[in-house]
């Protein structure tokens, strides 16, 4: 398979790139600065500069870009709209490294994780902006998008166990009663999802077993 990883130098992007290379995929690292990954090809561009020709021919494009500063949070919406426009009408799948705050707490889909009392107040603006990005994708029937939320505790320093489970829109916990996954296991799960190619126009989630 041929994939492109946007923000391949980032914490999540670099692990996804490594997993894809290890699985024998042809990987293009989309970076703004010097490539620090083992990807076989490199494209130096900002996400907003990407064109249809840049992303033509890929089986999947992974959006691992993060926006953290208050003035940049709106880019969770605008960047996904841009990527959707670029990939509109193609067979290329768009996999988005999403957030956990928009996972639903009940079957009626009226209450999200970010609405719960225990959700950290400091993370609510980020969670809200990422949820708006997901809402942008939900309006698109012309793109094969897959929004992949991690568990509530998304551990950058956690070990790779090789064990994870795929869930849906609802907030779930593992056998230990925890909503947890390491970056490494998330990267493994996302690359496995790309390889299977069975998901499209939906949000799913990954958590440890």
TrEMBL record:
One GO MF term: oxidoreductase activity, acting on the CH-NH group of donors, NAD or NADP as acceptor
UniProt feature coiled coil, ranges: none
A Pfam family per the record: NAD_binding_10
NAD(P)-binding domain mapped to chain residues: 8-194
InterPro entries linked to this entry: NAD(P)-bd_dom, NAD(P)-bd_dom_sf, Polyketide_Oxido-like
Ranges annotated as spanning the membrane: none
PANTHER family: FLAVIN REDUCTASE (NADPH)
Listed name of the protein: NADH-flavin reductase
The organism of origin for this protein: Pseudolactococcus piscium
């Amino acid at each position: 398979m041929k994939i492109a990883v946007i923000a391949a130098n980032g914490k999540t992007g670099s692990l996804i790139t490594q997993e894809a290379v290890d699985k024998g995929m042809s990987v293009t690292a989309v970076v703004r600065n010097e490539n620090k990954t083992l990807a076989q090809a490199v494209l130096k561009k900002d996400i907003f500069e990407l064109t249809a020709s840049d992303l033509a021919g890929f089986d999947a494009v992974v959006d691992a870009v993060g926006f953290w500063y208050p003035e940049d949070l709106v880019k969770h919406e605008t960047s996904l709209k841009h990527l959707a426009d670029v990939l509109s009408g193609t067979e290329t799948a768009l996999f988005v490294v999403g957030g956990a705050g928009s996972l639903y707490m009940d079957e009626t889909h009226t209450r999200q994780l970010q609405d719960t009392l225990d959700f950290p107040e400091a993370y609510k603006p980020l969670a809200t902006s990422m949820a708006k990005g997901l809402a942008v994708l939900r309006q698109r029937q012309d793109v094969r998008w897959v929004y992949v939320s991690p568990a509530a505790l998304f551990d950058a320093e956690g070990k790779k166990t090789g064990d994870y489970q795929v869930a849906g829109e609802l907030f779930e916990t593992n056998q230990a009663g925890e909503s947890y996954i390491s970056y490494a296991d998330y990267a493994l799960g996302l690359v496995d999802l790309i390889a299977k190619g069975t998901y499209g126009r939906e949000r799913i989630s990954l958590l440890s077993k």
